[in-house]
Amino acid sequence: MINSAMNKFPFQFFRKRLNRKIPQAPASNPRHSASMVAKTGQVFIVGAGPGDAELLTIKAWKCLQQADVVLFDWLVDKSVLAEIPRHVKTEFVGKRSGRHSMLQQDICRRLVDMASSGLTVVRLKGGDPAVFARTTEETAALQEANIPFAIVPGITAASGASAYTGIPLTERHCAQSVTLSTAHFKDPEKMPDWQSLAKATQSQTVVMYMGLSRLKDIAEHLSAAGVKSDFPVAVIENACCPHQRVITGCVSDIAEKVNNAKLTGPALLIFGEVVKSRQQVATQLLQQVTHVTGF
Ligand code: SAH
User: Fold this and answer.
1) Using CA atoms, how far apart are residues 212 and 268, in angstroms rounded to an integer?
2) CA 238 – ligand 1 centroid, Å
3) How far apart are the CA of 142 and the centre of ligand 1, in A?
4) CA-to-CA distance for 121 and 81, rounded, in angstroms?
5) Does residue 168 share a domain with residue 269?
6) Cβ of residue 269 lying under 6 Å from some atom of ligand 1
7) Ligand 1 nearest atom to the CA of residue 77, by list position
8) Element (DSSP H or E) covering residue 104
9) Closest Cα to residue 236, out of 197, 204, 278, 202?
10) pLDDT tens digit string along 94-116?
């Protein structure tokens, strides 16, 4: 389904070794005898990072090369999918807020079934699997089925957006810590603790995931909880991707600005004085990184 772009990736270094180590599933290599195929499979829950494939860890990339099958969701960028070798099966289990194409319990079952049949499965998640990624629901299912699994971290959207916009997450003059938060709860009736978040903004950076569609509401609640109307906010859409967009403003005007810019997401909201400390990063240099790594 997806073409490999291994030649474009600066990890040729590993390819020789990897080619020797890749376990072949019966489906992809019928010449292998049954005795050569592991009876119990395994699952790697892998962070794909926020966009740019070159932000994958080396371990994540190696997992993709060694997989029999990769299950991925909507946040995984095309450039990352292009790193999956052609012989590896891929399956989209797209989960997007409000538009789940596959129920979480079905994804869990699929993981268990595939690994039980002896396959090496990579569950590829956008960003970091430990941040708003429902990883524990999947690991609980695997544990119950006695399937060995491991987690490979990825760069979370907050770190990626920070680097690719130049907005620091902490800054010793105004933000001693950073809160990763969401306005999106399993129970849609549930609301964030606005008073605590408003208080946090006084000395911390508050990064909000999955908040774009509720931005107006969030800004109003924070305002009502005491955040000043001119408090700085940044909204970053498609962080780390070539089409990244950044809108900056303040609590009182950010919703209107974002509405006018017609952002559709994925987007991250950053509430904090750090927005004013934005550095002038030359992101085009990051597009040329393959020329300077020496691989
Ligand atoms: N595990 C992911 C977060 C998944 S929750 C991580 O660690 O980044 C999904 C939310 O993440 C999106 O609604 C958006 O708020 C944020 N997000 C993920 N990728 C993003 C990107 N490239 N740019 C901006 N926001 C992103």
Assistant:
1) 7
2) 8
3) 24
4) 15
5) yes
6) no
7) 22
8) helix 104-116
9) 278
10) 866 555 578 999 999 999 999 99
Give the distance (Å) from ligand 1 centre to CA of residue 22. Answer: 31
Residue 152 in this model has a pLDDT that exceeds 50: yes
| Ligand 1 atom closest to Cα of residue 269 | 15
- Total domains present in the chain: 2
Looking at the fold, whether 148 and 172 belong to one and the same domain comes out as no
In a domain, 9, yes or no: yes
Please say if 95 is a catalytic residue.
yes
* Domain final residue, candidates 120, 155, 190: 155
Q: Residue 81: which domain range? A: 4-25+35-155
Terminus-to-terminus CA distance in the chain, angstroms? Answer: 28
Instruction: Tell me if residue 78 is catalytic.
Output: no
| Ligand 1 near 215 CB (within 6 A) | no
- Ligand 1 binding pocket includes 266 (Cβ within 6 Å): yes
Give the domain-ending residue among 131, 155, 179: 155
15 in the same domain as 111: yes
Do 117 and 164 belong together in one domain?
A: no
State in Å: Cα 25 to ligand 1 middle. 32
**pLDDT digit string, tens, across residues 196-253:** 999 999 999 999 999 999 999 999 999 999 999 999 999 999 999 999 999 999 999 9
State pTM to two decimals. Answer: 0.86
Scanning the structure block, which residue is given the tokens 């770190």? 159
Separation between Cα atoms, residue 218 and residue 175, nearest integer Å:
20
Looking at the structure, do residues 127 and 216 belong to the same domain, yes or no?
no
Q: In angstroms, rounded to a whole number, what is the distance separating the alpha carbons of residues 53 and 187?
A: 33
Q: Are residues 109 and 20 in the same domain?
A: yes
